[in-house]
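If your schedule permits, I should be very grateful for your opinion on a structural question. Thank you for your consideration; the sequence and its tokens are set out here:

===
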Amino acid sequence: MKQVSFTTRFLKLTLLGYVFSVMSVAAAIWFASAPALHQMQEDAKRAHLETKANVIANLLDDILDEAEFVARSPEIINYVMGFEGRSSPAQSALLRLQNAQNAQNAQNAQNAQNVRLIRPDGQVILSVGEKDANSPFLPVEAIEGLDNMIGGRSEVAPRISYRPAGETYRAHFLVTIPIVSTGLVEGLLAFERQMDLTHVLSAGQSAPKTIIATQFQNEHWETWHSDAGPTLSTPMPGADFYLIVDTDSAMVQTVGRALVLTGIGVALLALILPFSLMAVSGMRAIVRPHEELERSRRVLAVKQSELAELAQIAQLASESITVTDEHETIQWVNSAFTDLTGYTQEEAVGQRPGALLQGPNTDPTTRQMLRNAIKAGRAVQVEILNYRKDGRPYWINLGISPLKASPTKGRRFAAIATDISSAKEAQAKLAEAQAETERQSLHDALTGLPNRRFLDNLLEDEVTNANGPRTLIRIDLDHFKNVNDTLGHNAGDFVLQEVGRILRSGIRPGDVAVRVGGDEFVILLGRGSTSEQATLLSERLLGEIRKEMDFEGKMCRVGASFGVASAIGGLIQNCDLLKSADSALYTAKELGRNTTTVYTPQLHSIVNEKRLLSAEIQRALSIGEFEPFFQPQFDAQSEELVGIEALARWDHPTRGLLSPAQFLRIANQLRLTPEIDRQIFRAGLARVCELNAEGLLVPKIAFNMDVHQIVSNRIEDIVADFDLGQTRIAVEVLESVLVEEQDHNFVDRIDGLRAQGFQIEVDDFGSGHASVIGLKHLHPHVMKLDRMLVQPVDKDPTARELVRNMIEMGKALGISVTAEGVETAEHAAIMTELGCDTLQGFYFARPMDYEDFRVFARASQPQEVLHLPPLKAKNSA
């Protein structure tokens, strides 16, 4: 029908020309027919040009739709935002873009080239396809406008740039798609695409040439091609370039001149020739553009077929896809939607997704977020709880994106949902397991009470939140070790459980009882509790703890010491509660156990004094204020100098010379005793080297060392730094090592030192539990009798007999005996008579510093020096 209409218009135009030709011949043809022909030709070309522009726009829309689909995919968004460390999912999505476009446009397109993912800073983080070396686009063009989109200064929308591809009807396009997440631009998807537009732009050899031009070329076309005549141009919908066609004005002028010339012949030839010319011109100006329009319509029909194929692909997708209109009404769903929800397509279409799928436990905030995004026409992605048709809940990862508005259908939205129920269930189980693990990590497995970590967190919260001063009780069980040693660890665990029960039932609401480790407990009292209330609670708990506990028919008895500290009154702060209560507990232990001590201002002064002393000890270590004093040892028979014992002294700048009794206990608490001993050891060896160098031979030097220092420190490595000549080194260990159970490391270490020439001596023998088995096991070179045994021998025959037995025991084991505390001539005579080998005490010499001992050694040096075998060096052992 339309073909007939165009033919009729053509015949009428010819007839009109015939009438005007008769009336005015050439003049009428020039002023009426020629402009009319020109206008008709221009209108047809404009319509034809707009049709071509729409065809190209549809082709580009298909590319944009597929590219936008890929840019909204979770693989691309997660990779660009750094949520996914692997590149393979994103690379697969980019390959889908490349492959899908090739399949749809195989006859008129090449591969999508140089497909890139670009971060907001312009860095390419992933690319697919080879970069065309002849690409007309600069790398910076791919990110043009990105900063404005990120800063909100321009619309967040795809962008298409054009460059000619070097052939008449081939075009090179650069497509950039913003990657958007939660309304923010996170990067770009960019790729280049060549298209063969011959079937769109070419209209035959005689037809005017149609050209694609940029905006800049369009604005300056007629200036640059002034000799080519006027042109028509039309903008490309949705892109920044134009189509330009020559209006063929030379042809119109030729037709006008022909009409003028033939006007004279009309009368002669009965208007046959003008009619023929008008017929030919009409066919060219009207019929041929109409044919081109029909050809364009056929291309559109092909595109509709391709859209149908895309719909089929959507049906085959594993993700649920839903299309809704601007009123949130479902227009279309795929098969995956039906499988996921249980609703058929007929049941879903026309319904609102919220009313159909959401239920009582769906998060209202998430629902409102979806409504706001749809209302604003922006993309959104959430995790939301939905319900199937049978009422079963399920979780989905839902992404909703607006589709390009249609003139007939308005704005629509595509929702893609992925079932994440299994992942959510696993996540919930993991959270439950983590919560249980956290609970266990904050509670003691044996007693069920909170543990030290719980207390540390609680105290930190109290300090941080400043919820007022608090009161704390520190508890340590007395004689608990006896239960473990005599009845076994099962009985000890039973006692700890009973104490935990007593604490739990004895505290008030608001109090917290904690087992901090071993047989130590803490009670943090509720707000407002005073130290007096804490003392009453401690006494009541002590009464319960001291009761006999029946374990499998055996009676367990323990006691407890309590240290109370309170921040009420301003003596201390909440952050000092634990260490202050610990100081009070230590005092309670010193006062005889099974008692309660409150942290008072007097105790606070003592603690501060200890803290000051602690800091001074560390300072003294750093500058070397600890130095050795030397007490000589003499042969019991000849009274000649046979050795010295190095004793630690602290040359304090303000307190003067301090003995170990004044600082050793604090040093032990700070675990600095080994460091002090190392300084004394090095300094003592250095002094001996100086004396030997002066010819003042020191036959032996003895050092006090604890078990830890002997096992942990390689003292032979220190000795190797000094030239000791014939001086022996003696290592003195306390008598307690004879009765304490020592591991193989200690025994092997003692044997190793003995093999390298060190003498092993037992110090303060008889002060504790003298052990014959221990002596035999350790087999020391020397046994030093404690001064408490030596002091009464001049007045008490029983003491004298006891010492005699000990000396005889040592002799029987092949051990030399040294007597400490020899303060009188009578002591020296008696100990010599009883069989001691070596004497040491104030009767002979007090401990003295290096200079005094140097003078003493010079005066005591024998005429003939006893040459002793040298100490084996480290490298000669």
